[in-house]
Design goal:
The structure holds two protein chains of two kinds. Chain A is α/β, with parallel strands linked by helices. Chain A is built from nine helices and five strands, in the order βαβαβαβαβααααα. The chains are: A alpha/beta, B alpha/beta.
């Protein structure tokens, strides 16, 4: 469960909340970093870490919702768990609509928070892995020659080697060689993987 | 022993009895004796008045020690010569040793005796004859005692009385005349009858004088209409029955069916209508005067016989009513006697005073009741006001409390949530078997801080809603400031700040809860310190000023910090509003609550030299 690379970011303008969340989450083996404001978080935090953000929905200056919006726009991957007081239901609903992982109403139990943190971290990890695979795939795609890229596009669109050869007006054997090189360069073992990754990176014809 | 005592008691009694006489004998004044010979028996009203008057006039004479001897000769009832002879002998013997210096005779009968027996009786002693009829004056002048006598004529005024009677009873056709048959009766009757005849010429005159009183009474009972009755005196009637004339007159008047008129003052009130009658008092005064002159040594012959009289116009109100004579027809200045006042008239003064008193009392009672009512009402109102005031204060604070509840919940929730998380973290560490003292300390410190924070919230809340007895006492604001500055001095030094005070030493006291005002001042100074935490060294000072402005003691605390931003100016006194990272936002709210509760004001202004000036003002004692 513990993972040295996982960091939980706690953003709250209330020192008590920061400190208490810090020790509680640390008791579960995570690293915790606390921030007094959204601004501080944005300027200081390693935004591509694996972990999650625990965010006070009500803060002076940039609010939790503002931060959520900002992070969403910039494609950051860390899930956000909002913590709210009573009477913040409308804000919580808004937060959920924008994709918040969850929200907790103070005071909350460790048994409520920690599973949320754990699943958020897991989610983050998956998302991160996914994102990593996609970006790797994109990077690999760039190593393809134009002819290889052409073949790749035809392969993922479901054409047979013979059909591709006909389309590209080259020999079937040549298509096979290119196809092998594409598979090799993109690091995929099967056509299915290739298609899945292509879909994930939003490559379409 | 007992007998001896009895004797001495008796002796003592006699000593006391004679004490006045003993003292009188020591008198150095010359003794003068007045012998008064009353013609009638004792008890006659006129004689009694005369005696009383003489006693008064001569009782305390400065020149002489005057002794008055009264003899009631009773000559109407005992007119016989033999009786008179005995009487004169008796008088002669009685007054041989103690000779009178002057003899007064009252009414003509006594004078008659003196005239008849003057040679042997009281020879040479001056005589003053009082109450004698007109005709007797001439007789006196020719009598044997004329050389030593003078007198006062009773001038009867009969003519005028008759005229006025006829005026009151216009159309009178008959006049009835009544008198007794004694010497005195006759001596007065004759001149009076003469005068009446003169006044009532042409009117029938019926003289009933010769009849018995019984006959007279039956006659006057059935008099013809338009009759009036004149009555002089009746000492004795035809049958020799004697009367006290006023009593006889009263009977006549009661029996009469016509108005009765008389001539003597002493007859007034006995049933006569009235008129201008000779005054007895005038006679008595004259007699007293003449007596004094003779006692002083004047010769009686040097004092002329008085032939005049004082008169008083007197009418009997009852008789006027009885005969329906209107008061308006009476001469001006008439004295009305027997006026039967109706209750209202009789007790007019008392009634008036009583009514006045009653009105006054009623007004007073109404006033008092009203005052009492007003007082009750006022005190009830006051009570109500006080209750309402307290209620308002409470409601005000409670409603403010209501407004705060949301933020309060949040404020309490924060440390409570934090404590929960800390505690659960600690439990998890324990469960995992990790023993990290540093971590444990951290957790426990967090819990302590959170707990304190929660307590702060509760405390400040309580200070806002507290409704206990207020302590209010005359408080010196300067003293409060100095004490608080002493307390804050440590913090000021730690923050490298200075404080300057400009305190008005002549400041009046304010009525306040000293502790609460201390709290206000401490909060303001603490705020000032916090405000200047980031200031440059030359802008790290607080100035405290006090002054009296229009009956209010005003306290100003200047700081040189960044100042409250304009957009926050209207919020800084709100509860839980704070610009500090570590503040609860209750400081100024509590200050405002306290100052408002004291009837004062709290506000802030921009300090022209930078920073803010926080003011609060409290009403000076005894200033309205």
């Amino acid at each position: 469960m513990t993972d040295k690379d996982v960091v939980i970011f706690v953003i709250d303008d209330d020192a008590s909340v920061r400190k208490s969340l810090s020790v509680l989450i640390r008791s579960d083996g995570y690293q915790v970093e606390t921030f007094v404001s959204a601004g501080e978080f944005l300027s200081r935090a390693a935004l591509d870490s694996i972990g999650c953000i625990i965010l006070d929905i009500r803060m002076k200056g940039m609010t939790g919702l503002d931060l959520q919006e900002h992070l969403g726009k910039n494609d950051y991957h860390m899930p956000i768990i909002f913590i709210t007081g009573h009477g913040d239901i409308p804000m919580s609903v808004q937060a959920m609509k924008k994709g918040a992982t969850d929200f907790l109403t103070k005071p909350f139990d460790d048994t409520q928070l920690l599973p949320l943190v754990e699943s958020a971290v897991e989610q983050c990890r998956r998302k991160k892995a996914m994102l990593d695979e996609a970006s790797d795939f994109r990077r690999r795609l760039k190593t393809l020659t134009p002819r290889e890229y052409e073949v790749f596009l035809h392969v993922i669109s479901g054409l047979m080697n013979k059909q591709i050869a006909g389309e590209l007006n080259i020999k079937e054997h040549t298509v096979k060689v290119h196809r092998g090189r594409v598979m090799q360069k993109l690091g995929v073992a099967s056509l299915a993987d290739l298609v899945r990754l292509a879909e994930k990176t939003n490559i379409s014809l | 022993m007992m007998v001896m005592r009895l004797y001495s008691a008796i002796a003592f009694f006699f000593l006391i009895l004679f004490l006045p006489w003993v003292s009188m004998s020591a008198d150095s004044r010359e003794t003068k004796r007045i012998l008064v010979l009353y013609s009638l028996e004792k008890g006659n009203v006129g004689q009694e008045r005369m005696d009383a008057q003489l006693q008064t006039a001569f009782g305390s004479n400065k020149t002489f020690n005057i002794k008055i001897y009264n003899e009631y000769l009773d000559l109407v009832r005992f007119p016989e010569a033999k009786q008179i002879s005995h009487l004169t002998q008796f008088l002669h013997q009685k007054y041989t040793r103690e000779k009178p210096d002057v003899i007064l005779t009252i009414l003509p009968a006594a004078l008659d005796i003196l005239e008849e027996h003057g040679k042997e009786l009281f020879r040479g002693i001056p005589v003053i004859a009082a109450c004698i009829p007109r005709d007797r004056a001439e007789a006196l002048k020719g009598s044997p005692i004329s050389k030593k006598a003078t007198g006062i004529i009773y001038v009867d005024n009969a003519y005028e009385i008759a005229q006025s009677a006829l005026r009151l009873r216009p159309g009178t056709k008959h006049i009835v005349f009544i008198a007794g048959v004694s010497v005195i009766d006759r001596s007065f009757k004759i001149p009076i009858l003469r005068e009446i005849k003169r006044a009532a010429q042409g009117i029938e005159l019926i003289d009933l004088s010769g009849l018995t009183l019984g006959e007279i009474l039956s006659r006057v009972h059935t008099l013809p209409p338009e009759t009036i009755v004149f009555n002089t005196s009746m000492f004795k009637d035809k049958e020799g029955v004697t009367f006290n004339p006023p009593d006889a007159l009263k009977m006549v008047s009661q029996a009469s069916n016509a108005p009765v008129f008389g001539f003597v003052e002493t007859h007034m009130g006995k049933g006569v209508v009235g008129g201008r009658v000779a005054s007895l008092q005038w006679q008595i005064d004259k007699l007293t005067e003449m007596t004094q002159r003779i006692l002083a040594g004047e010769s009686p012959t040097a004092i002329p016989i008085v032939e005049e009289a004082g008169y008083q116009t007197i009418y009997d109100w009852k008789e006027l009513k009885r005969w329906s004579i209107p008061e308006s027809s009476l001469p001006k200045g008439s004295i009305l006697i027997n006026k039967e006042l109706n209750i209202l008239d009789r007790y007019k003064k008392y009634l008036f005073a009583g009514v006045l008193f009653l009105i006054f009392q009623t007004i007073l009672i109404i006033f008092l009741i009203d005052m009492n009512r007003k007082k009750k009402k006022a005190s009830a109102q006051l009570r109500e006001f006080v209750d309402r005031y307290h209620e308002l204060l409470r409601v005000d604070r409670s409603s403010r409390l209501g407004e705060l509840t949301a933020s309060l919940a949040h404020e309490l929730n924060q440390p409570l949530a934090a404590i929960l998380s800390n505690a659960q973290a600690a439990l998890r560490f324990l469960a995992s078997g990790k023993n990290d003292p540093e971590l444990t300390r951290e957790i426990l410190q967090n819990i302590v801080q959170d707990d304190k924070r929660a307590a702060d919230v509760i405390r400040s809340l309580r200070s806002m809603v507290k409704k206990g007895e207020k302590r209010r006492e005359p408080t010196s604001i300067n003293e409060v400031l100095n004490e608080v500055i002493d307390i804050a001095m440590g913090a000021l030094i730690a923050h490298d700040m200075s404080i300057e005070t400009f305190l008005d030493e002549t400041l009046p006291l304010v009525i306040a809860d000293k502790t609460q005002i201390q709290q206000v001042v401490l909060n303001l100074i603490t705020n000032a310190i916090d405000a200047m935490a980031q200031s440059t060294p030359d802008k790290r000072k607080i100035i405290v000023k006090t002054e009296l402005i229009e009956g209010f003691v005003r306290i100003a605390i200047h700081d040189y910090g960044p100042g409250v931003p304009a957009e926050q100016a209207d919020k800084i006194f709100d509860p839980f509003y704070t610009t500090k990272s570590n503040g609860l936002g209750m400081g100024l709210a509590v200050c405002k609550s306290i100052i408002k509760d004291h009837g004062g004001h709290i506000w802030f202004e921009k300090n022209p030299e930078g920073g803010d000036i926080f003011f609060f003002s409290l009403k000076a004692e005894n200033h309205d």
